[in-house]
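Can anyone check this?
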Amino acid sequence: MLQRQGAHVFAVDSADTDDLRESAEHLRPLGVEVSLGVSSPPQRLFSLAVVSPAVPRTQPLLQAIAQTKVPMIGELELGFQQAQCLSIAIAGSTSEVVERILTSNHRKTVLSGHRARPVCSVVEQSRELDFLILQVNSFQLELTEFFRPAVAVLLNLAPDHLDRYDTPEDYIRANARIFRNQQSFDWAIIQSEALARLQALKLPVPAKTITFSAYDQSADLYLDRGLLISRVGNWAGPLLDMDHCQVRGPHNAENLMAAVAVGHVLRIPLEDMVTPIKTYTAGPHRFQVVAEINGVQFINDSKATNLDALHKALLAARPRPGGGPNIWLIAGGTDQGSEFHDLGPVLSKRVKQAFLVGQAGEKIRAAWSLFTPCKPSASLLEAVVEAAQNAASGDVVLLSPACSSFDQFRNYQDRGERFCEAVKSISRGAHEGSPKGMG
């Protein structure tokens, strides 16, 4: 984008990998200078540094650039500054629901940002849009300056990425930047528990506010016996029955509450939101039911890269009739500074056994072994196979790692796809008559 606008662009990276070399070969013919494996900024004048959100500010190359006093922003900030329509920023996983609501109601929109297409790749079409939906995370928000969405949504502030942040409060402060530049006529849609944490740190939310919660019935939108209820003025009463929706669990109820609130502030009637909400499915790697084999349900929740996501998956998994643990849990990967013992009570109630993979396996075993049997597994495939062999009808084999995937996989999608491949292999074996689906 900068190159098309006539800027002289340098691309630098401290790493030098095959993937980066391939990217460099695409950039150089455009006139972009690329330097890999470097530890210092270019030895020439430059007026702006645009940083990938994946790079922590403690990285030596970034610290060297900071010492040059050159302005340093993130790709999100750059894209926002170039966009020519209103923005809806969402810190959390409800962006796809909002996109469905808007497109179903003939609003021109594009979803971009974290885990979607980069913001800068869509700004040139933004003049044709009504709204640009930006899926953002704390990493992207760190290097924002003037970023000001017309509608900002914060799903929760469960501790995450503590391998990057010194304290949970630093993580909260980074997320709070989503509201920092909003004005009194903008909208902030925020989980009530998250708002309380911002208020405890004296972090302001200057916009008009709608709160929601699956657990706090004093919120503007709340969950009561499966119904989404509103107490917002001129919009009070039941909104939606979760039993009529494709997604389940309190966390999905909060996603839908946030999405409905976005539609409401954009003046979309509730009756025009119902169909896109009811037909919404969470998609791959998000509590995705892959198969049911001999009465055993296999669930791919690879996107659950922190403890809060795992906690929600354990609560959402189907219970055994009559109660008792019925989940064979596969967890582990790269630790992000989590306090794994916090999940002890729900583990003892729901999990029959945990199969632990990856770098964090031993730390997780030390934290969980008092609450549920734990067994190290050499690989994800080994864990899936052994869980399937032990599971009985009515049980659930759940991949919900509570860790990032980068010790063994390219990303969480790659990890989830490997799980699905293993389950499909087991399913083929079951149809061929092998015990438990295994040879």
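Reply from J.R.: I decoded it. The first helix runs from residue 18 to 27.
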